[in-house]
Every structure is written in structure tokens, then in C-alpha cells.
User: Fold these one by one.
Assistant:
Number 1:
Amino acid sequence: MKKILVIGSLNMDITLRMERAPEAGETLTADSLITSPGGKGANQAYAAGKLGGDVMMLGAVGQDAYGEELCHNLASVGVDISGIRKIAGVSTGTAVIFVEHTGENRIVLVSGANSMVDRAYIDEHMDKIRDCEIVMLQLEIPLDTVIYAAKRAKEMGKTVILDPAPAIPNISAELLSCVDYIKPNETELNMILTGKTDSLQFDEALEQVQKLGVKNVWVTLGSQGVFLKESGRDGELIPSVRVTAVDTTAAGDTFIAAAAVSLAKGKSPREAVSYGNRAAAITVTRPGAQKSMPNADEVSPV
Ligand code: ATP
Ligand code: RIB
């Protein structure tokens, strides 16, 4: 099995479950508050580890209880955490998540230690990039670091998988030219190309992102599934599994991690998407980020 290296964020998620998020100037009472491990990078590493992948994570936490818990949780599913930096005098990243009764979520991030993952740290860990076959990146660490890591990984012939979330307007063409697989949802796809959420038609956006050098596109479409567009082939909707969603937090993280594990096992992009859909459909039926993710026995085989 190919080795996966995740370079990204670790956040402690503070989740408030409530009928609906408050409007400006409004005070509401939540049903519950739960603190649990999250962060797009850590979620993807955790999901891939729990599904049986050979995974290492690079990123940073503060020297605090949240940081300890996040690292411990990753290690509990076999993720190699030896490269994660523990920085004094800065807090571990935090996400405040409002989950409405519909299952929809809204997230406010405090970057903390994630903002200190810089080029120098990547340089210190170049051996880890050399040692893996698949590199997974997201946008909760500085963009400059993501571009730098993607370029180094590409130069070394690695497969680069990018989750362009949270979306950055007009993302750099330099970054996209290094990407083998990208996983935006529809609004993220538009935002990274045009700086707006709806200015391009779906087909135009797919064509544009591939012209910029991305080989394969996985557009996540919530309960509908994922639109797969491999370069040189017609696009295809791979439908999701029908379930009742209670919390969609980390559905995208589970999807991309499961798809990466499937690719690591030598499966095709289409099989990878199908496996990702099956894993993510389980995540949405449970509350929380990492604690909602399935193990390999729960997902029908790759
Ligand atoms: P994030 O989780 O960061 O918001 P995203 O916007 O990519 O990421 P979605 O498109 O909502 O996330 O979901 C990702 C994937 O999870 C979908 O493509 C699908 O495979 C699965 N999924 C999401 N919602 C449902 C649902 N209601 N029923 C079944 N599967 C779902
Ligand atoms: O993708 C879900 C994640 O986004 C949450 O765990 C939260 O930490 C935010 O970063």
C-alpha cells in the first residue's frame, strides 16, 4: 500500500447544536456543546488511518491540552504523529461549529498554531515528503506553505491531492498546476477560479480548472454524491448512498481521505470516488468530525 502524508491543520472543534444559528443581534440557547477533535488536515489523516491507510501527519499545535488530545486521537488510529510540531506560547487551532437541526453547519476558525506551519517547517521535513507516495493538502494552513509543499511534492513525482477548503478567491495557477486530484464543492470550485461563488457554469468551471493543469476533479455534491471528471474523459456523477444526515461536519474530509486510501491500494479514480461516497455517507449519520468517521469494517470493501 502506498504511503499517505497529510500536511495541514489540527483544530479542536467546539460544536453547538441548535435549531438554527443566530441572526445578527440575536441571542439563542443551544441544545448542547461538545468539544471534539477536528481540523481539515487532522480529520483527513484520522479518517485515512481509521480506514487502514499508512498515514503520517505534519502540522502544528500549541503546548496545551487540546493539542495533546488531537495528537493522541490521531495516534489511536495508527497515524504517525512524530513530525507534528508543539509550539510554546500559541494556542492550538479551534473551530466553533454551529450545527442546525437540519444537519447544516456554519464554522468560525481560530487558526492558532496552524498559522505557524511555514516553509522552514516543510524544509525540516522534506524526508517525509520523499518517503511517501501521496501528499494531501487543504487550505487551513498558510497558502504560501501549501504552494511550497505542493511544488516540492510534485518535483519529487508524488501524487498531490488538494482540498481547496476553506476556499480562497482566485487560487494560484502555480498551485493548481501541481495538483493531480482536487476536491471542491460547487461553490468552492467557482470561488477558487473567479473569486465569486456562482459566476461560471458547472461545465465551464470544470474545463477551466483542468486547463490550469489539474488532472482529476472530484466535485462533492452533498447528498447527490460526487461528479468525477478525469482528464480526457467524459464527466460522470457517482451517486451517494441514501441515508438520513444528522451532521454533515467532516463529510468532505471523510470522502477525500477514503478516496485517497482507495488510490493508495491501487484502485481506479472511479472506484476511489465510490468508496469515498460510501465512507462519507456513514459520517453524516453521526455527530462530530473525527468521532463520526467509520472504520474499514463499516464500509463495504474498496
Ligand atoms: P465539507 O464536509 O467540508 O463541508 P463538502 O462541501 O465537500 O465538504 P459535502 O458535499 O456536503 O461536503 O459532502 C461530501 C460528501 O459526503 C458527498 O459528496 C457525499 O459523498 C457525502 N454526503 C454528504 N451529505 C450526504 C448525505 N446527506 N447523504 C449521503 N452522503 C452525503
Ligand atoms: O471539515 C470540517 C472541519 O472544518 C472541522 O473539523 C473544523 O475543524 C473545520 O476546520
Number 2:
Amino acid sequence: MRKKIIAGNWKMNYTLTEADNFVNEIKDRINTDELDVVLCPNNICLERVSDLIDGTNIKLGAQNVHYEEKGAYTGETSANMLLSVNAKYCIIGHSERRQYFAETDEMVNKKAKKLLEKNITPIICVGETLEQRESGILFEHISSQIKNALDGISSDSVKNNIVIAYEPIWAIGTGKTASSMQAEEMCKYIRDEIRKLYDDKVAECVKIQYGGSVKPSNASEILNMEDIDGALVGGASLTNDFVAIVNYE
Ligand code: 13P
């Protein structure tokens, strides 16, 4: 039985004070060990949130990392820096980073390898545009994102230390959620692709989240699908809605 994982991607929201107030408001209401809960604040707030969730079951995640160890990469954050604030997860390949910051599959693969080397779990995002879905290259596109992201990564790592987040781009921040059937269809497809790349055991263990306009009203339908092991939540992770999502039934 795969333990579900619900992560909140705060994106570029919340100052330190706002983060303080928000985490203090929600932390005792999402202190569960039935599922993994991860908060992914912006870099400025990482250390503060790390302190605030210390002693709870909530884990810390970052929103990005550089694949080099250290050096002259102005504005970037290394995996060791994430380790120093006790980050356990890091989102990579988010469609916003691919779209606005030219993050490529190759970079996603290098970032995944660097994170695994440091024992930080990559949350690897994949997803299609509406055009790709409508023009019928949907499965091909997702398959290639998965293959490229996982290139050269061992079956042990995929089995134990990788999360895949399926986030259809047309459903992000638009209020349009993929139907639970559409989300399940793709998460199952991703699991089958992993089965082809690795084996049954890896496919049955790897965690696959859905992301895109997850809210309290659709959380339980989505999270109860067989191949959906959790959610990557954007907008709703900034409000009390996150508590309701985590407490879905
Ligand atoms: P929304 O939940 O705001 O649609 O964002 C989803 C997302 O991009 C999470 O990474």
C-alpha cells in the first residue's frame, strides 16, 4: 500500500511574516502520520518554515535546485543549501519553470540525480498543454518527459525516493481540474511506462501525484483513485483549504 503524499507548492507567495502566520495557523491541524504532508515555500521562507514545522509530521520541500554542487551560478540554490535547512523534497521540472525559465528535460534529469545523491526526494513534474492533449500527442509527450527525466536513474531510487507529479498545464491555476478519470488514466499510464522502463516492483512502489486546481471539493474524488498517490496543490495550499484537502476522506 503506497502512503499518500500531499504537497503544497506555495510558488512565489508569502513573505516571512505571512509564512509565519500561515504555518502557525495550520500546522497542528495537519499533523497526521497517515499520509506525508510537505510544504514547499519560497527560498526566503525555507529556514523559517523548517523551524516552525520542527517536531510535527510535516516535511519541508523546495521549489527548485541547481544541479551543480556549488560555484558561480548567481541566484541559484544548491542541494547542500537545501540540506542545510532540512529539506526532504524538492519540486523539479514544474511547468512554470519549463515555460518561464527554459528548464529542459536534460536539466530536470541532472537536478534529479543531484537531489538523489543528497538523499532529497525529487518531485518530478510532467504535464501536457491543451494543444498537445487535443492534437493526440498527449501520451507520447508524457512518455518522453518521463523517460528523459529518469534517464540513468536506478530502479532503487525510483522505487524508494522519487515522486512523479502529473500536472496538466491547462489545469494549473485555471480552476479547470482534470476529471478524476482523466487524472487516473494518465497516472496509470505513467505507472505502466515505469513498469516498461524498470519492473513491476518499481511500478507498484513509485508515487504518482496529480496537480492542477486541486481543492477541497474535488480532493477526495481524485485522491481515492487507484493510481493517484497524492496531490501537488498550488493556490489552495495558501489557505485553510489545504487543511481540508489533507483531511480528505
Ligand atoms: P493550482 O493548484 O493553483 O492549479 O497549481 C497547481 C500546481 O502548479 C502545483 O504545483
